[in-house]
């Protein structure tokens, strides 16, 4: 992939063009969807806000758990935010004109609350976490406790 522009962290917010799809690639599951990010721009002559030119992202989710949650939570038309590794892939279309395919390998996907409400349903937790949830007592987050202690918050 040498020569392709990459960003380690890129965030885009837009509307899903289609429902997320689960695919099998080389024996692994992968969830993909397209996201249309349409910026709002102010037209000074008309003195109003208008849609700018949309940027379309091909989004892929490798994490099985995140992928399952995306498929179970999002649908065509929903507004979402994705964060992950961005890659610009140049191509030439049928007419011979160059183009740029925008790809994001997402490690975070979330529903936008700008125009919708959501109800959060926790996934089943394995092992001790599930027992703690059953008892309605949260387990101690050792990593967070260490950070709190190092930053003098406790």
Automatic annotation (TrEMBL):
Keyword DNA-binding attached: yes
UniProt keyword annotations, A-Z: DNA-binding
Protein name per its UniProtKB record: Single-stranded DNA-binding protein
GO molecular function: single-stranded DNA binding
Keyword Transcription: no
